[in-house]
């Protein structure tokens, strides 16, 4: 992360447009303006207003099929929490992926999209009775059980149904992975799953096996998000397969499935170097094969649940610049605050996780020298930052358009109406450059519709 004045670390616009940070369909026209699949972003801005999330459909579909092909013989479930809408759920189905949902709302969206419930895994650390009942009624493929209370409730809800619901037990494997490092401390001190080290995962397994309405098919583990190396997965797979071996020894049962969750990182800024689906698939397969062989276990079927890596790089956010405020700060630091027409309501990740983003001028070329800027939103707090440090041309001015890369994951899905701002639309741009609204912009009337006065 960069917070000081000095020579620009990313001097050329080409570097800012590096593939991997932006979707494959983004290009710069001869006049310097950006286009998505040949359609100028400025035209999309005029058609749909700003801020808007612009989704490169061919790019996201290519990512889905890359995951499916890399994991042939295994299962890929898209983690809908990263971003979900009806079209997205249909693309997931068409590209042959399953769907991971973690609330009744996500489940209902999938149903409305016509998604096959048998290809849905239901997550959640606090599923309500209504959510569990609905999942059972729909006969979802898997429920990942997360607490003893849930096992008891599932026992009651399935009693006498004559049907057996397939479940996985979510194991807390003692690895906390985030960004580049994983830290093996404090991992037990969080809300998800059953601890392996304390023995509660084994107790949960015994409890599930005692419920006639449940069929235990495997163990689930999700270790974190935005992970760049496989060592954390290695520890996770090792502990999950260890658990499988103990279950075999105690219960005489070789569980057929291992779900290692999601978490593969993506490039947000130049220098981020994520693995491809093929690389992670090769790695995970060999880890699981080695661990299974080591325990003389039959090879379990592998499942992964990528969210960010499927949708993140396929989307950019287009903003219009409002005010531009150059500040002379202590120590000779000059920073220009560039305010855009959205902010933490459409991308809370910078404020919440200190996330880094790449941005660039989208409507024109500029020969002006790069200047250190901070792209901020229009909300009433100083933490409302979209891009903490960006080198933008010194002549950036009101009315310019800014594109922020890799906003597909956890931006629209975590958007809010803070300060009574309507949430932005999601616009899909097809391979031929044609475009359509997937999710329309909210209106102030939408926001007032729930206010009964
Ligand atoms: N599976 C499970 C059980 C999960 O909890 C998650 C993410 C995923 C899969 C997908 O992980 P991904 O491949 O997208 O990293 N809001 C945060 C990320 C929270 C992730 C929550 N669980 C962010 O904006 O970085």
A few lines on this structure:
By secondary structure, the chain is an alpha/beta fold.
Account of the protein in words:
- This protein has about 450 residues and is an alpha/beta fold.
- The protein is built from 13 helices and 24 strands.
- The protein has helices at about 15, 40-50, 55-70, 85-95, 105-110, 130-140, 150-160, 200-210, 230-250, 275-295, 310, 350-355, 445-450, and strands spanning about 25-30, 35, 40, 50-55, 75-80, 100, 120, 140-145, 165-170, 175-180, 180-185, 195, 215-220, 225, 255-260, 300-305, 315-330, 335-340, 360, 370-375, 385-395, 400-405, 425-430, 435-440.
- The strands form four sheets. Strands 4, 17, 18, 19, 20, 21, 22, 23 and 24 form a nine-stranded mixed sheet that branches.
- α6 (about 130-140) links the parallel β7 (about 120) and β8 (about 140-145).
- Mean pLDDT is about 95; it is low at about 1-10 and about 180-185.
- It binds ligand LLP.
- Ligand LLP binds near residues 222, 225, 226, 305 and 306.
């Amino acid at each position: 992360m960069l917070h000081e004045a000095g020579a620009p670390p990313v001097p050329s616009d080409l570097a800012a447009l590096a593939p991997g940070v932006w979707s494959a369909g983004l290009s710069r026209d001869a006049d310097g303006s950006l286009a998505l699949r040949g359609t100028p972003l400025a035209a999309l801005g005029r058609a749909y207003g700003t801020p808007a999330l612009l989704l490169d459909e061919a790019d996201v579909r290519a990512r889905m099929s890359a995951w499916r092909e890399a994991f042939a013989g295994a299962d890929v479930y898209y983690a809908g929490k990263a971003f979900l809408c009806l079209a997205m759920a249909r693309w997931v189905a068409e590209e042959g992926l399953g769907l991971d949902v973690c609330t009744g709302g996500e489940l209902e969206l999938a149903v409305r999209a016509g998604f096959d419930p048998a290809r849905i895994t239901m997550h959640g650390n606090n599923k309500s009775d209504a959510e569990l009942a609905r999942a059972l009624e729909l006969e979802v493929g898997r429920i990942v059980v997360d607490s003893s209370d849930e096992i008891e409730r599932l026992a009651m809800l399935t009693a006498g149904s004559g049907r057996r619901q397939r479940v996985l037990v979510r194991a807390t494997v003692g690895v906390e992975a985030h960004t580049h490092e994983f830290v093996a401390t404090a991992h037990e001190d969080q809300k998800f799953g059953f601890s392996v080290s304390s023995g509660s995962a084994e107790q949960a397994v015994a409890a599930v096996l005692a419920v006639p309405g449940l069929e235990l098919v495997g163990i689930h583990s999700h270790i974190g998000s935005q992970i760049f190396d496989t060592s954390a997965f290695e520890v996770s797979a090792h502990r999950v397969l260890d658990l499988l071996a103990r279950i075999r020894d105690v219960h005489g049962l070789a569980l057929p499935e291992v779900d290692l969750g999601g978490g593969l990182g993506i490039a947000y800024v130049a220098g981020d170097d994520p693995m491809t689906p093929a690389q992670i698939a090769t790695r995970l397969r060999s880890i699981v094969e080695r661990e299974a062989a080591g325990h003389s276990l039959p090879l379990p079927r592998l499942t992964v649940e990528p969210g960010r890596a499927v949708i993140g790089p396929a989307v950019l956010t287009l903003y219009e610049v409002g005010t531009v405020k150059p500040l002379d700060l202590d120590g000779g630091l000059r920073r220009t605050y560039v305010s855009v027409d959205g902010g933490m309501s459409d991308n809370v990740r910078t404020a919440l996780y200190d996330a880094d983003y790449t941005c660039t001028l989208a409507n024109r070329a500029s020969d002006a020298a790069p200047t250190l800027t901070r792209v901020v939103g229009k909300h009433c707090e100083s933490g409302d930052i979209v891009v903490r440090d960006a080198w933008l041309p010194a002549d950036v001015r009101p009315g310019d358009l800014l594109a922020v890369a890799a906003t597909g994951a956890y931006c629209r899905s975590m958007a809010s109406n803070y300060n009574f701002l309507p949430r932005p639309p999601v616009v899909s741009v097809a391979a031929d450059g044609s475009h359509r609204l997937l999710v329309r912009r909210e209106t102030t009337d939408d926001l007032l519709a729930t206010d009964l006065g």
